[in-house]
Amino acid sequence: MSWWGAVALAAALLLGPATSGMAMPEDAVIPVEQYSTAKAKNLAVTYRAQLLQFSDHVYHCLPWLGVVKDGIGFRQPRGADSDDRYLSVWISIDQSDDGRFGKLSQERRVSAMFSRYGVDMLRRMTQQLPGITSDADVSGFSVVLSWPKPAITGSDKALVTETLALFVDKTSLGDFFAKRLPASEFIRRATFNVFEGKDLVGRVPLDVWEDNFNSTFKLKNYELEKGKKC
Amino acid sequence: MGRRIVRATLVVSVMFLTGACASSEDWKVWLGHTTHFASGDHGFFSMRNNKDGSNPRVTRADIEGARTQNWWGIYAITVSPSQIFQN
Fold first, then answer.
1. How far apart are CA A131 and CA B38, in angstroms?
2. Which residue of B16, B28, B70 is in closest CB contact with A156?
3. Taking Cα atoms as reference points, which of B55, B59, B4 lies closest to residue A222?
4. Every domain of chain A and the residues it spans
5. pLDDT digits (tens, 9 = 90+) for A19-53
6. Minimum distance, in Å, between the CA of residue B51 and any CA atom of chain A
7. B residues 13-32 near A, CB within 8 Å?
8. In b/e form, how buried is each residue of A13-49, taking b as 16+ CB within 10 angstroms?
9. Which residues of chain B from 51 to 80 reach within 8 Å of chain A, CB to CB?
10. What global pTM score does this model have?
């Protein structure tokens, strides 16, 4: 191990996993007491077991992704007037810059990440949680994706993440997956914002294309925990 | 070896004393640190190779351990949930 590796390992052991922002499956689901409305609390109680199961699925079957603490739950978009609840999953993607990613414009990076991880996550949510999909109290689905912004070579600026937060109603999402709704119309109907660090970038031109990476990739030599199935 | 351990201890101590902020030199080192879970190419995993270099196995716990080494995950400036959601 290199000297810097030893330093990093020592720091990691002292700091512990809590500071990484990643969550174990049970910590990824928002506790019921954090919700402020009866509607949200009811959804959280009704579907807690399913959400824990989904969290466990992501943890073990998509190990290259991480759900942030309290990242799964029935969220309400900031600024919403009514108590519309969206099943939301916040994923952190440990994407390093291989030289190509950083050359993309921000809107292309956002499009690439959504096409690769966002669409697949939304599909898994609708397929694996049918009871939630059909619940009248659930308005739609949401996915939040965060990844490290590619650094400029030679820059000593602090690292920031880029984040896409997207909300879409159930009907539009269902029609998009059933190929009744073109991607361009799906994006037009979706509500989303991009953030750079804590700064709001806002809505950027977003393209969606087919990318089956997340459903086909196998992490080399990954050993699934006994008793788990993917 | 002993000097290295002392230096490592000092660096970690300074990190804590300065509020766990990395210096610009630290950032430069870690900006060049390639971690790409999607490719499975991570230095941490190579440490689990068998002595003959064959059949390395990677568990979910290994991946969590590797993530704690990613400084971006610890220090990176990230949007807060309240900027996206309301309860």
1. 31
2. B28
3. B59
4. 18-149+156-216
5. 346 788 889 999 999 999 999 999 999 999 999 99
6. 15
7. 15-16, 20, 24, 27-29, 31
8. eebebeebbbbebebbbbeeeebeeebbebbbeebee
9. 55-60, 63-65, 67-80
10. 0.77
